[in-house]
Fold this protein.
Amino acid sequence: WITKMNLAFSSERHKSLFPLLLLFYVPLTCLCQSSNSSTVSPATTSSTFSNVMPRMAVPGCGAGLDPVYTYLCDRQAAWGIVLETLASSGFLFSMILLVGLLLWSLWISISSRHQRSSIGGTVACMSMFLLATGGIFAITFSFIIRLTPQTCPTRIFLFGVLFSLAFSCLLARCLALLGFAAARGWGEPAVALGLFTVQVIISTEWLILILVRDKKPCEYSQEEFVMLQIYVMCLLAISLILSLHFLCRSCFTYSYNYTGRARQHGRTQATLLCLTLLFSACIWVVWITMLIKGNAELGHRPQWDDPVISIALVINGWVLLMGHGLCQVAFLCRGEARSKDIPLSFAGWTSPSADIPGLGSQKEGKENGSFENDGENRRGRRTETALRSPYESGFSMTEIDPDKDYTIPRPQTTNYREPYDEYYGHD
């Protein structure tokens, strides 16, 4: 099969994709090796439905099961069982992270209700990202199930919408890390929602034109399915470029405004973000190449179309979840825990000498000889009028004794010319 792959992709343009294509070809060969000998014949193309299929017994499935759902339990074509297991575990993990993040943010907002917290926008954007990641795992089941009039709108609409939401959150995060004012605070989820809305309009418009205006069945070719994801690919490309820029800036520039720990944290976050987007871009290049050209040249066009997209969904979902979802939640919780410094409280503070008699008593300033209260009776201490400084310094000018010398003492020496004999002309 390696020789067959080399012959199919013999041009120089496809040789660079050969290592990435192995990532999809090996599981497809192992999981779909019995798809040709399956008792249920697949559709001739991915854009046509199997209206009438014989209900025959499939190993692992019930006798009366609709042939549309046979890949969910067919032990001969085990790719469906493997992918639904991975997709289910990924969906559960995403939801656990989402619930944990929401509970943690609620606890933070309650515990620091007297302080202003600035993590609301980041938590909202991360919640949308985890929802999109969980949806990517869930939509895998619509590709494991055969193409029907019910699963076709789900595939067309949710595939681009969920990926656009995930990549929009990553793009908004890149803008926030680069310091764009529009993506700070609550602007980050606002930017993500704005970018996400565009793909919603595109997918909705396609469905309305096909199903409502033209009144045609929801049918699509491989090329049409890829063309509907052009905006999603633009989001992915822009996010990858911005993440590379942020990684270069965090690695090759230094600012004295940040400590070593904050700089290392930013560098780690930039590296993980860049790797997540880079792996996602590679996965998209591979599944698009296999769907448009690879399956046809290898002679597996109708059988491998759905498995290729399903494998891409599961792999990309786990890349997004582990590369950004889990790591970003860990960074957020750790950073917020370190930033919560205990405020200084001087309640109950006493001087170390408070226990010593005579030293811990409260003083009013009268012990100072220069202190004088104009309202009290001086009891004959001084009858002349006290001269006050025009700046009200509190010192009485009559306290100064003119007979005393208040000059600063200077060092005295009797041999003051000895170091300067040459200067004064003495040998």
About this structure: The CA atoms of residues 246 and 252 lie 10 Å apart.
